[in-house]
């Protein structure tokens, strides 16, 4: 696991891709995992790395709260895509401990471990505490949608145009990309940010699937609290 060397422009692309459908390195609230990667990056990513820059700017806002964030700060190589090695100096030192890199958050039966439950409860408690201190805090979520067309002849550009035509108070459309499904068919993955009290996934599904000339189905691929 790892992000290579996040100080390298090429390896920053790995981080950018990893954050395309995530708000944080782990979980759905900022944690020590974000602090570890943030410190390794050391400077704001370039504007073309929009997901990494969004995440970096957001974590910057927690400068005074870093020490109190939940979780345990680990070596950089303990985070990120499984097929990418940590090429930082600390990663080379830490490689001898790879055999100990087991999933502490799942039991042998695949159930959530006690530590996972504890961290999840810490995240929720931290969020509730922050919301209580700031009653005007607006709860938001980042949602990644998978939208499938009928076939390879479906006009994907028109499909995306229809989706982006859905406008609601508390809904902001972000980046999108095409993902090959098979047999020449590509699905559309599109990201949006919603205000939880105003926009729900049921509303999005109802409005998007209404474009039934282009849309076969829509599912939520990822859902992260911001």
How is this structure best described in words?
By secondary structure, the chain is an alpha+beta fold. The chain has seven helices and four strands, in the order αααααβαββαβ. It has helices spanning 9-18, 32-41, 50-60, 89-94, 114-133, 156-164, 201-209, and strands at residues 140-149, 171-182, 185-195, 215-225. A four-stranded antiparallel sheet has the order 2-3-1-4, covered by helices on one side. α1 crosses α3. The longest helix has 20 residues, at 114-133. The two termini are 24 Å apart. Residues 91-110 have low confidence and may be disordered.
Brief summary of the model shown:
Helix content is 33%, strand content 19%. It has helices at 9-18, 32-41, 50-60, 89-94, 114-133, 156-164, 201-209, and strands at 140-149, 171-182, 185-195, 215-225. Strands 2-3-1-4 form a four-stranded antiparallel sheet, with helices on one face.
